Amino acid sequence: METKFLHLSPVLASSDVQRDVNWYEAQLGFKNVYDSTQYQDGPMDYAVVGKQGLFLHLQYQYPKDMTSTDIKFQVQHITPFFEACVAKGLLTPDRLHKRTAWNTSEFGVFDPSGNRLTFFEDL
After folding, report:
1. Does the residue 74 lie in any domain?
2. Beta-carbon-side half-sphere exposure of residue 75 (alpha carbons within 13 Å)
3. Which CATH number goes with the domain that contains 87?
4. pLDDT at position 5, please?
5. pLDDT in tens, 76-111
6. Tally of domains in the chain
7. What pLDDT digit, counting tens, does each position of 7-59 carry?
8. Domain membership of residue 98 as a residue range
9. Cβ pair 34, 56 in contact under 8 A
10. Is residue 50 a part of any domain in this protein?
11. What does the alpha-carbon distance between residue 42 and residue 45 come to, in Å, rounded to a whole number?
12. Does 94 reside within a domain?
């Protein structure tokens, strides 16, 4: 029997987990589903944000250790989400790349810690 992969949970570096959780909630509509304040005192240093069954983990990194990640989200009906991101000032209306050479429509934004989030729709 072949192994079936069920879920992927990328862990993104964060220079300020609380700030980034707030950004994911306010800007992209994710929800904080779990964070380190539930099991330890002190500032939030780990969190999980989710939207429609997809989850991102945010883990505090010291500035000297910061790395950035590039995450790609495949979506359906990209235009309403893109327009919501434009309305929130995350990017300008000319940033939706329609009909790329690889037959997608896509756009990207950076979170406050410098991780690149690309949203694409196959055409």
Report:
1. yes
2. 20
3. 3.10.180.10
4. 78
5. 999 999 999 999 999 999 999 999 999 999 999 999
6. 1
7. 889 999 999 999 999 999 999 999 999 999 999 999 999 999 999 999 999 99
8. 11-122
9. no
10. yes
11. 8
12. yes
